[in-house]
C-alpha cells in the first residue's frame, strides 16, 4: 500500500540552525502561524509571511521538491476554497485565506522536517504533562498522535490505489467501487492497529 498524500513533510536529517532549535521554539512557531492566520487581515502580509516560512524551510536543506510534496495534496482543494471565498467575500479576502492555510501547512512541515518523530512525540508528552492533574494521560495522547500520523498516509494511499484500480476497470465514476474497498481496507487497518496496541498492553485504560 502506498503511503502518499500526507500533508506534512517527513523528517530530513540535517544540522541546520532550525534543526538545532529547541523543540519548544518550533512549537511556538507553529502556534504563532496558526494564531496569525486569524489576526492577519492583509493578503500582502500573508504572502510575505508565507515567503519567510518557505525560505526557512529551504534553509533546512529539505529542498523545494519536499516543500511542494507537503502542499501538493491541497492543490485540488485550495482553488475551490479560494473561488468560494472570492464569490462570498472578494478577491483580497480569498487570497488571504488561501495564503494563511499555506502558511500553517509550511510551518507544520518545517516542524516535522526538522524534528525526529520520537523527539516530537516526547515533546508532546512534556507539553501535556501539566494536564495530568486533570486526568489527562500524556503518553496516551502522544500515542494517539503517532497512530494518526501513521494512519493518514496509509488511508490516503488506499484511496489512491482503489481509484487507480477503478479507473483501470472503467469504474472511476462508480461511488461504490471507490468507497466500499477503501472502507473495508480502513476497517482492517484499524483492527490490525488495535490488536497490535492490545498485544503491547496499550489498548485498555489502566485500572
Overall structural class, as computed from helix and strand content, comes to mainly alpha
Please describe the biggest sheet, giving its number of strands, its sense, and whether it closes into a barrel.
none
Q: Tell me which oligomeric state these chains represent.
A: single chain
Q: What is the H/E order?
A: HHHHHHHHH
* Coarse morphology: globular
Backbone CA Rg: 20 Å
Mean pLDDT: 77
Which segments are poorly predicted (pLDDT under 50) over 5 or more consecutive residues? Answer: 1-5
Describe the structure.
The chain is mainly α. It folds into 2 domains: 1-115, no CATH class; 116-207, no CATH class. It contains 9 helices and no strands. It has helices at 17-20, 23-39, 43-59, 64-71, 78-89, 91-114, 117-128, 138-168, 175-199. α3 (43-59) runs parallel beside α6 (91-114), α5 (78-89) runs antiparallel to α6 (91-114) and α7 (117-128) crosses α8. The radius of gyration is 20 Å and the shape is globular. Residues 1-5 have low confidence and may be disordered.
